[in-house]
Design goal:
two-stranded parallel sheet, alpha+beta
Length: 71
Amino acid sequence: PSQPAPSTGPLIAIEIVEVPAHLQRDPIATRTSPHELQVAEFDRWAEPLADALRRVIAETFEARGARLAFP
């Protein structure tokens, strides 16, 4: 099978994705109003949220033709 041509788009470096402390927990927290979070004690993220965000950001840029670097 043929390999896709390498991208010649802009090079984007993704270093660290920081997640606020209130979201760095196993249960999913959802903002229900400007001053309230609801914690779903029995619902869990499928992967660490920071990893998921970094993956989705990378996939989005790659889909738009960017080349990625992970320093």
